[in-house]
Amino acid sequence: MAARKLLIDVHTHVYLPRYASVLRSRPTAPRILSRPTPNGSGTEERLVILENEPSGGRPVGPQYWDRDEKLSFMDKHGIDISIVSTANPWLDFLSPAEAPSIAESLNADLESYCSTAPSFSSLSRLYGFGLLPLLPSVPASVLLRIIDQIASLPHLKGVIMGTRGLGKGLDDEALEPVWEALAREGLVVFLHPHYGIPSSEWGERENGHVLPLALGFPFETTIATTRLILSGVLDRHPALRLLLAHSGGALPQLSSRLASCIDHDPLVAARLRHDARWYLGRLWFDAVAYGREELAFVAECVGRADSYDKSHQRALGAARLLFGTDHPFFPPLQDTETWHSVTENLEAIAGVEGWSEEERENVRGGNAARLFGLV
């Protein structure tokens, strides 16, 4: 099968059975709790990621951990390959003493999950992002050992990372050996939000998960990535490959404002080697934007790093965008429906004006195949 015709999902999650068991054992968030169903006919499990989460969390079931459910979802929507990652909150809630061994076990579990999956040609249908025990006081030597473990597992192509790093953010100097090792090993860093912004900002009206997910997550990504850029990480480690969830949050929209503010701040301007918009063109972005206008805008902003011609910008930006679904979150209301996170994001890719069919195919799968070394 030609790589350009693959449909590859780079943003798709799994709560591996070992991880789900840890969540079930916890009395406080993050946890999986069991409670009576609303109609009183039985019990249901609910995933509570944060304290005071709206509606007591969300229903959780086999689609979160059963590989057959993942493959069934892929088959239903024509997805050839998925790059699977443990969903938030990863290992943030564990103690520094227990997190490293759990990380190593979950990495081994994910390698087994992927390596024993069905395949076609020489490719597995499943690959994964490993986990690092990014917690305060976990020694750098331990983190480097686990990076070596991930690099040695053939089906793990990178790591998923939250925005807090070791607790102080991605601009923490203590992360320097981690960035160096990840760049050296060629592992992709999938940066994903979890904490959003303070819940007090959402007011007293009940709006479910809408504001935290639609706005909190993207702004968390925007701030975390900006801090990473301002710290010079991408200058010191030019080989580092960073993939941003949810199309980079608001970073594309605010990149010119960011550049202007830097230009007017001599302390920061002297620290960076390039205009802020240049760094945008050195990142990768999932195409989980849900609309063609938004996706076209991200492509133009990303491509602007190397061109001032709008049509050329979209073409350059297309090379940095990768299809994703965010499965198993945002399920359809009826079992017979296709998932809007699939159909809307594919329609967005198909609808961007000015893209050639080859560029669309690259966003659907060709870019991911090259980024993750599948071709």
From TrEMBL:
Q: Which GO terms describe its cellular component?
A: cytosol
Tell me where in this chain the Amidohydrolase-related domain is found.
Answer: 8-374
Sorted alphabetically, which SUPFAM superfamilies does this protein's record hold? Metallo-dependent hydrolases
Keyword annotations for this protein, in alphabetical order, are: Decarboxylase, Hydrolase, Lyase
- GO molecular function annotations of the record: carboxy-lyase activity; hydrolase activity
Pfam families attached to this UniProt entry: Amidohydro_2
Q: Which GO terms describe its biological process?
A: secondary metabolic process
Q: In its keyword annotation, does this UniProt entry include Hydrolase?
A: yes
Tell me which family the UniProt entry assigns to this protein: Belongs to the metallo-dependent hydrolases superfamily.
- Protein name as it appears in the record: Amidohydrolase 2
Lineage, top ranks? Eukaryota, Fungi, Dikarya, Basidiomycota, Agaricomycotina
